[in-house]
């Protein structure tokens, strides 16, 4: 089995790490998911980022160190997995929006209530459920074997970009940022029609 990605991989600006996470493998206890879609969040200058209200008990993992998980509960239902990036003390992270299964399909389907196909892993809450995550996984190091970690995988042949989703609370100029990245050739992505090939 491949070793986890090193901490140095995550200790870069979020806009470098986010597209570089596409194709990497999220691993936990026999379940392996290939990352197909992500979103970048970075403070200061991004009111969509959870750090906009300063350091709180909830968002503390967001401030580092890099290579840690930041899992937050959305609407009291969905556990959303974020990968902390940048330097220690900065507030930036990559939200894992969609994946495709690599291993552990039976367990993934059980956790997802029998759901199958691309829609079953299209959305960050579905990823959290497939990996059986809760907020107790916040601060967990993703650069070490055991528990939850990220390893190398198959990079996408091409990348598509678009606006981030579900951030109506952010300032208009931040809602427009093309900080959503996806494997352009994968069916396991969300809101495909709003994506454009990188560079266009």
Layout of helices and strands, plus pairs?
Elements: H1 7-10, H2 14-21, E1 25-28, E2 31-43, E3 69-74, E4 78-84, E5 91-103, H3 105-111, H4 124-130, E6 148-151, E7 159-162, H5 172-175, E8 180-183, E9 196-197
Antiparallel strand pairs: 1-2, 1-6, 2-5, 2-8, 3-4, 4-5, 7-8, 7-9
Question: How do you describe this structure in short?
Answer:
By secondary structure, this protein is of the alpha+beta class. The chain is 15% helix and 28% strand. Strands 1, 2, 3, 4, 5, 6, 7, 8 and 9 form a 9-stranded antiparallel β-sheet that branches.
Structural commentary:
The protein has 200 residues and is α+β, with helices and mostly antiparallel strands. The protein has a single domain, classed as Roll (3-methyladenine DNA Glycosylase, Chain A). It contains five helices and nine strands; from the N terminus they run H-H-E-E-E-E-E-H-H-E-E-H-E-E. It has helices at residues 7-10, 14-21, 105-111, 124-130, 172-175, and strands at residues 25-28, 31-43, 69-74, 78-84, 91-103, 148-151, 159-162, 180-183, 196-197. Strands 1, 2, 3, 4, 5, 6, 7, 8 and 9 form a nine-stranded antiparallel β-sheet that branches. A hairpin with a 3-residue loop joins strand 3 and strand 4 (78-84). It is globular and about 40 Å long.
């Amino acid at each position: 089995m491949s070793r986890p990605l090193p901490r140095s991989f995550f200790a870069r600006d979020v806009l470098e790490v986010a597209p570089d996470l596409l194709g990497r493998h999220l691993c936990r206890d026999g379940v392996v998911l290939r990352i197909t879609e992500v979103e970048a969040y970075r403070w200061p200058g991004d009111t969509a980022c959870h750090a906009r209200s300063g350091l709180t008990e909830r968002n503390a993992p967001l401030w580092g160190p890099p290579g840690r998980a930041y899992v937050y509960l959305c609407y009291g239902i969905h556990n959303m997995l974020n990968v902390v990036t940048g330097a220690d003390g900065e507030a930036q992270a990559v939200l894992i929006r969609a994946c495709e299964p690599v291993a552990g399909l039976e367990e993934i389907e059980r956790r997802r209530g029998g759901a199958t196909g691309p829609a079953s892993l299209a959305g960050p809450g579905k990823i959290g459920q497939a990996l059986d995550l809760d907020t107790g996984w916040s601060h967990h190091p993703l650069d070490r074997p055991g528990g939850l970690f990220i390893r190398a995988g198959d990079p996408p042949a091409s990348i598509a970009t678009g606006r981030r989703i579900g951030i109506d609370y952010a300032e208009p100029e931040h809602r427009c940022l093309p900080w959503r990245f996806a494997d352009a050739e994968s069916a396991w992505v969300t809101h495909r029609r709003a994506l454009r090939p990188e560079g266009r």
